[in-house]
Every structure is written in C-alpha cells, then in structure tokens.
Amino acid sequence: MCCRKETLETALTNRVEYILREHYKTSPFNIRVRKKSSGLDSDVYLCQADIGDDEPIRLYTKKSRKERPSMKHEYETLNHLWDQYYYKERQMTVPKPIDYWEDGEMLSVERAKGSRLSTILGYEGLPLLRWFYYTDLREQMNRVANWLAHFHSFTRKTQRISFNEALQEDLENVILQWPPALSLMQIEKCATKLRDSALSLDTAPHIITGRHGDFDPDNIIISADQTCVIDFAYFSFGTPLLDVANFMVTLELHSTPFHTMSFHNLRFYRKLANDFLVTYNSTADLPFSKDEVNLYRVLKFIRALGYAKKALEMDPGKSLQTSPRALLQRLQSMYATQQIKSFLEDDDSGKKSFDK
Ligand SMILES: Nc1ncnc2c1ncn2[C@@H]1O[C@H](COP(=O)(O)OP(=O)(O)OP(=O)(O)O)[C@@H](O)[C@H]1O
Ligand SMILES: [Mg+2]
C-alpha cells in the first residue's frame, strides 16, 4: 500500500516537472504534491513548484482510479472552451488546461484563485447572521447565474429540442450513468409521469446548448474579480435547463444536516435558488418557468440518489460514526428518495416546491 502511494507520488512529481519544463519553459524545484479530494472515480492533487523568485506555480491534477474516457473528454472540452473564448473573458472563466497524460490517466489544469461557492455558503451560515449575509449571498447567486447564462449562450447551437424529448433523453442518460438509483419499475413510472407532465405543460421547444453537467457550488470558484467554473467531466449538449435545475436542487440538498452548509434551512436555500433563476432568466436566451424547473429537478434527485448509493456501496467498511461523508450521503439519499416518491405519488407535483 505504502509503495503504491510512493510510486504514484513519484509519477505525479515527474509529470509535473515535465509539464513545467515543457509548458512554462522553466526549471522547477521543490515540487510538492498533496491530495486535495477523492471523488467516486478520481482523486485530485494540488501540485506546487517553486520557480525562483516568482510565485510558485500551482496545478490541480486529476488522477483517474480506473479507466475513464471522461478524463480525455474533460480535457478536450476545456481546451475548446479556453481556445474559443474564455481566455478573453477575464471575469468568467474556466481553468486553463495544461496537460492530459493518457498513460497515467491524469489531467492537469491551472489553479483558479478564490474559494469554492460551497465554502462561502458554509462560512456565512451562522444562524443569527443568516439574514444579514443574505444580500451578499444573493450577489454570489447573480454572478453564478450570469456565468451560466453566458456559457449557454456561447455554446448554443441552431437546433431545438422539444421539452418532452429533452426530458426523456436526459432521463435515459442519468439512468445509464447511475444505474443503482432506481428499480426498473420506478424508472418506467418516472418516464411516464415526466412525459405526461411535460406534454401537459405545452412549453416552447428548448434551444440546444452545451451543458456543464455537474453545475453545483462545489465546482464554482469565486474571487473578488473572477468566477471560475471547474470540473467539466460531464459536459454534453442538450437543454440548458439541466444545469439550471441541477444548481437549484444542489442548494436544496445541501440543507441536509451535517453538511458544511447546513446552518441554513431549506427555505433559505430555496429563496437563493429562486434569486438565481430570476437572474438567469433575465440574461438567458430562453427563460425557464418554475414548472419546467420542477420537472427537471426530479432528474437531479435520481442522480443524487445514484451517486449516494454508489458511494456507500464502495465504502461499506466505514461506520456512520467514523465517516461524516457517509452519513451525509445517507441523509441526502433519504431526502432524494422522498422527493422522487412524492413526485411519483403526487398528481400535481410540477406546480410545487419552488413556488413556495
Ligand atoms: N483549477 C482548480 N482551481 C482551484 N481548485 C480546484 C481546481 N481543480 C480542482 N480544484 C479543487 O479540487 C476539488 C475537486 O476537483 P474536481 O471538481 O475537478 O474533481 P471531482 O469533483 O473530484 O471529480 P469528479 O467530478 O470526477 O468526481 C474541487 O472541488 C476544488 O476544491
Ligand atoms: Mg467536482
């Protein structure tokens, strides 16, 4: 075990040294590698290197734990976004892609300065100060909504897709990606219910755009003058509503106790989510109704449930007392299950939730 770790750190260090010589034309010394986070199928390392008197160079390197085509997909997506547009827009960015190493299954990007939005929401959660900080958090929601509307507008295509078709397509994708989420019977029920609700809404077709695919406060880095969105592993094309609903539901899920953001209650997050939607709608090419968002949020609950089930399956040894992450995942999966259940049982669920 210890040897494997050493080999990985040596491989990472060697690669970073190579990257810095090749891309930055510099001779690095004192390279430090530190594990930053562990996802379901990848680990992320912060790699720092000194380069003389200048500030150290900091890269984030994502290392796949198993064969993972999405690493290449993420690199290609970032390259495209960076080349085409984002390097010009200093305020709304993506991280600069630096290196993709196929053999080592590693992707390196430049560090974005700032704090994760999830951390910002967490800091400012002391109950007594909740409403005092609300104005500031609302400002963060505006920035995030503007980033997203801008991104959708930049990646838009000329094709359109009906709301019902988009829903069915994204439902299939989410089930493919997270098969443990629902039983076959539940999937069929969901598909029928979503289709009937979508048809009864009779909305205009949606413009097809690029979607980030995992747009949530963990993947948004904010500093005084910049909003940077990271982690494009799930980038795809389809209705931009997927990202909008994803972000709104993640806020809702994070009101589950034991999360860093848990000082706030559900009502507070729904209010922020509504602010986000208002700003998004005022900037985007196509505004979304709350009914449309409410139908799409079911997909995010399925995804959250699939993620939680897979994560708990992978980590069966850890008891709930010793792993707060496992506890959080269990709580979120209970909440997601409840939401899916009430959607399936309720006759008029499209009109609920965000209207309150
Ligand atoms: N370019 C970057 N700048 C600043 N922080 C970063 C950057 N890339 C990654 N991080 C930090 O590392 C964490 C994990 O990175 P990332 O979101 O790319 O991977 P992940 O969520 O583990 O991957 P996956 O979505 O495949 O599970 C982020 O939440 C963030 O704190
Ligand atoms: Mg992430």
Overview of the structural elements:
This protein has ten helices and 13 strands. Helices cover 51% and strands 16% of the residues. A hairpin with a 6-residue loop joins β2 and β3. The longest helix has 25 residues. 40% of the residues are buried. The mean pLDDT is 87. The protein has a five-stranded antiparallel beta sheet with strand order 1-2-3-6-5, with helices on both faces. Strands 4-12-11-7 form a four-stranded mixed beta sheet. The protein is of the alpha+beta class and 356 residues long. Bound molecules: adenosine-5'-triphosphate and magnesium ion. The site of magnesium ion (MG) has 3 residues, from loops. The site of magnesium ion has 3 residues, from loops.
Instruction: Give the integer mean of the pLDDT values.
Output: 87
Q: Provide the helix percentage.
A: 40-55%
For CATH, the homologous superfamily of the largest domain is named as Aminoglycoside phosphotransferase (APH), C-terminal lobe
Tally of structural domains: 2
Low-confidence spans: pLDDT under 50, at least 5 residues? none
Q: What is the CATH domain class of the largest domain?
A: Alpha Beta
Measured by DSSP, the beta-strand proportion falls in 15-25%
Order of helices and strands: HEEEHEEEEHHEHHEEEEEHHHH
Here the CATH topology of the largest domain equals: Aminoglycoside 3'-phosphotransferase, Chain: A, domain 2
Molecules bound to protein: adenosine-5'-triphosphate, magnesium ion
**Given the structure, what is the number of helices?**
10
Which second-level CATH architecture of the largest domain applies?
Alpha-Beta Complex
Q: What's the count of strands?
A: 13
Computed Rg: 21 Å
By secondary-structure content and strand pairing, the structural class works out as: alpha+beta
What general form does the structure show?
globular
Strand order of the largest sheet: 1-2-3-6-5
For the biggest sheet, the summary is: 5 strands, antiparallel
Terminal CA distance: 52 Å
